[in-house]
Design brief:
Helix content is about 10%, strand content about 25%. With about 160 residues, the chain is an alpha+beta fold. The relative contact order is 0.25.
Length: about 160
Amino acid sequence: MADATTLQFDLTPPTEDQLHDLVADLDDQERHVLLEHGTEAPFCGVFLDEKRAGVYTCRLCGLPLFNGGQKFESGTGWPSFTQPFSADHLKYLRDDSYGMIRTEIVCARCGSHQGHVFPDGPPPTGERYCINSVSLAFTPNGEALPDKLGRGAPEGEALTA
């Protein structure tokens, strides 16, 4: 079992063929959220009440994005986290849609929409990463991470988060 704090993941984007195969595996709602920067309805996501230890990965490419231990109940209706798995696993974009100015977060490897980050979270970071459940997959501690791009270790290995 590898220690999640010492791993380096390949952030090279998927090839066109890989991306085509990954997108073909998505349902309509996943496509809407991940590729069209949509939002799922609040209080309905499959990970809203998930409390097991593990790693949340990008639903599209499998890159680890959040540790279960950083998840908290925000009352907003979406899974919320205090910090990412690794700072370089997310990209931050200005989002001025719907008459608001927000910070959108996307997967650093494949560019898929995850949600938004807000400066109203609990200590220690004061940040609230508000994420769509359909943007994520969950790997419980002790199980192998997905290796959707066939890149090998550390993907495909079990982690201790």
